[in-house]
Design a protein that fits this description.
Strands 3, 4, 5, 8, 9, 16 and 17 form a seven-stranded mixed beta sheet that branches. This protein has a six-stranded parallel beta sheet with strand order 12-11-10-13-14-15. A two-stranded antiparallel ribbon has the order 1-2. It is of the alpha/beta class and 337 residues long. A hairpin with an 8-residue loop joins strand 1 and strand 2. It has two domains: 196 residues, Quinone Oxidoreductase, Chain A, domain 1 (Alpha-Beta Complex), CATH 3.90.180.10; 129 residues, 3-Layer(aba) Sandwich (Rossmann fold). It is globular, with a radius of gyration of 20 Å.
């Protein structure tokens, strides 16, 4: 019997406690990863607290895992024992539905998500389908790579989906765990980048991360001065925003795109129709896009700004995140036995 040691909560908003389980036989197309690092995402908190009503307990968080392949099923491809790989939000897809055949594996009809109805990577080991075990290039620091596999790919994916051009003017709403990576990617992509924030004290940091300009969204004159300026506005926040104000800031055919879970999306239709503007959203990204993102990050030295905690101190790390003190992502170093 194989025993995986993990940290799990027994109920919503519960404290993580030591937990062990037998994962059963390794699937023919699965790989088993010995977890070395695991990032913490706000989605871990949402799932831990059952904010989306889909959590099952005992619940093991963790969907930004980096580690070594220690076992592979007979039909697993692409990865080899001892290879450093990463696992993000998704852990399996059918490979034969219309979405998978189109390369959109992240929208598979039978998508298996790493911490939904299965145990995640706050653990000694985690399993996934071989397709979702992404090799980590030598140019990417494995100790910082975890957040790229969720937050990073979530903000990188729209660049490909919307064919964002180096000449585009792009705004990023929210300079947090996702937003600070979006600024870096967009700057290296060649865009003119504007950071939208409610915190004046983040202006200098935002510029160091790649913003060419900063607008305080609490200042109506500043927001109005940006009218008609942007090809794309990428929202990374999970709070109420002035959506009509951002729609007004878009140029003709501009797109307001959210990757953060907004409480609601409500906007007047007239500006959308007259300006042929649109509102959209997207999930993380397909395996091929994850690979492109890591190659781009390695080439241009894009990496998350991280704080480190031992995995045994995951409760303290989660409290640090929920208190809004994380700058800007937290990575757990595995010390579980």
């Amino acid at each position: 019997m194989i025993e995986i040691h993990a940290l799990a909560a027994s109920s919503a908003k519960g404290r993580l406690e030591p937990f062990s389980y037998d994962p059963g036989p390794l699937g023919d197309e699965q790989v088993e990863i010995e977890v070395q690092y695991c990032g913490i995402c706000h989605s871990d908190v949402s799932m831990l607290n059952n904010e989306w009503g889909i959590s099952k307990y005992p619940f093991v968080p963790g969907h930004e895992a980096i580690g070594k392949v220690v076992a592979a099923g007979p039909d697993a491809k692409s990865v080899t024992a001892g290879q450093t790989v990463g696992l993000g939000w998704n852990a399996g897809s059918c490979l034969h539905c219309a979405q998978c055949l189109d390369g959109d594996h992240n929208m598979c009809r039978s998508l298996e998500q790493t911490i939904v109805e299965r145990h995640g990577a706050f653990a000694t080991r985690v399993r996934c389908h071989w397709l979702w075990a992404t090799p980590i290039p030598d140019s990417v620091d494995p100790a910082k790579a975890g957040p790229l596999l969720c937050g990073g790919i979530t903000v990188f994916n729209p660049l490909l989906q919307f064919d964002v051009k180096p000449t585009d003017h792009v705004g990023v709403v929210g300079i947090g765990g996702l937003g600070h990576m979006a600024l870096q990617f967009l700057n290296k992509w060649g865009c003119h980048v504007t950071a939208f924030t409610t915190s004046d004290n983040k202006a200098d940091e935002a510029k160091k991360m790649g913003a060419h300009a900063v607008i305080n969204t609490r200042s109506q004159p500043d927001l109005k001065s940006a009218a008609g300026s942007f090809n794309l506005i990428l929202s990374t926040v999970m709070a109420e925003i002035d959506l009509p104000g951002f729609i007004n800031a878009l140029g003709p055919k501009g797109i307001f795109h959210t990757v953060g879970v907004l409480p609601e999306v409500k906007a007047p239709s007239f500006p959308l129709i007259v300006g042929q503007k649109s509102i959209s959203g997207s999930p993380s990204g397909a395996p091929a896009t994850v690979i492109k993102m890591l190659e781009f990050a390695g080439r241009h030295k894009v990496e998350p700004i991280t704080e480190s905690f031992p995995m045994s101190k995951a409760n303290e790390a989660l409290a640090h995140l929920e208190a809004g003190k994380a700058r800007y992502r937290i990575v757990l170093t595995n010390d579980l036995k």
